[in-house]
Amino acid sequence: MDDIDKKIITLIQEDPDMTHSKIAKVIKKSQPTVGIRIKKLRDFRFLKINQELISHFFYALLSTTSFKQYSQLSIHSFSEECILIML
């Protein structure tokens, strides 16, 4: 981990919704470079996706939209699949 990685982590801690493009502008690197570094930070567990929070978000979103006709289990299964895709 170098100073650039530390800056990326700090920026994400300050604003978890910050886009790769915004981070790239702040640290003066390209967006693909930022994306690669974030992926490596996740792979080495320096950054972790809060799976429980994402699962609750998907559950809340899907249970209030047109997915009402689906069972709770279907909604949960869908949210788990989305989390796996993001990892």
UniProtKB/TrEMBL annotation:
InterPro entries with a match to the protein in the record: AsnC-type_HTH_dom, WH-like_DNA-bd_sf, WH_DNA-bd_sf
MF (Gene Ontology): sequence-specific DNA binding
Domain HTH asnC-type: 1-43
Organism: marine sediment metagenome
Name by which UniProt lists this protein: HTH asnC-type domain-containing protein
